[in-house]
Amino acid sequence: MAFLEARGIVKRYVNHLALDKVEIDVPQNSIYGLLGPNGAGKTTLIRIINRITGPDEGTLMIDGRPLKNSDIRDFGYLPEERGLYKKMKVGEQALYLARLKGLSRRDALKRLKYWFEKFEIQSWWDKKVEELSKGMAQKVQFIVTVLHEPALLIFDEPFSGFDPVNAALLKKEILKLKEKGATIIFSTHNMASVEELCDHISLINNGKAMIEGPTESVRRQFRQNLVSIDFSGNPETIEKILSNHFVLHRFEAINDHFNAQVKIRDDQSINQVLETILSQCHIHQCQELLPSMNDVFIQVVNQKTTPSQKQES
Fold first, then answer.
1. Burial tier of 272 (Cβ tally within 10 Å: 0-12, 13-18, 19+)
2. Per-residue pLDDT tens digits for 125-167
3. pTM of the model
4. DSSP character string of 163-202
5. Would 183 be classed as within a structural domain?
6. Is 301 a domain residue?
7. What contacts 250, CB < 8 A, 6 or more positions away?
8. What are phi and psi of 258, to 5 degrees?
9. Domain that holds residue 210
10. Could you tell me if 236 and 175 lie in one domain?
């Protein structure tokens, strides 16, 4: 059973249908990627989950029951629109936000000390927020989002403003939060991060959930039957054999060996590719090439009439 379920979510604004019967299933203790171009409806859905706004139609379920306002205390939300009080001191503000989430002063200070040391920002405790860089302020907001150890964490573009080193640090901490039992939704345009982190994804476009399911299953849905073979041997011979039996997609020299990419028909297999050339060369590696999430994203967004499809776990 899904930890969080959205059923038939509709949200209308004046002359604009932001969400059109969107349905998602977020498995418990998973990292769920909410993808889509700007204006697709991702942030609207996130705001509905957080009870910032309500749907015009549809229901949200958590742990098999209707979502209630009181459930929000066990959520952590890092919005894309960052918002710290610029004139307040960093530590004072972090403590204030922690208390709003129900932590005692003692527990809040203990946890803040742990996180500030982990992110190496303890020297900024008495600085004003306006003195922080964008990335430093982002760290503070991440900390206050996760501090009360919520069951559901929602990150909207969490890597915005981070250099590669700090983005890697954040990814590591997100994975640790999952290991500790959190369920995580995160919205991003960074498709490489999706492949690194997400167990499941939903791709929203024009207010519709176009595709939903396990990340690997989604990639397999868009497979193009491409096979990559690294080999040593006579390239002219291998190129001729492959061209006679398959569609040769690419053929190139790589250092001291060669790589061929062939497109096979649905009724052909990787084993057939190997059997065709095995006696003529030494094969170092052979694998199916699945499209990246970036390729999937572009294909779905460009196919505006793609029907909603849901992948099985």
1. middle
2. 999 989 988 888 889 999 999 999 999 999 998 887 788 888 8
3. 0.85
4. -HHHHHHHHHHHHHHHHTT-EEEEE-S-HHHHHHH-SEEE
5. yes
6. no
7. 259, 260, 261
8. -130, 155
9. 2-220
10. no
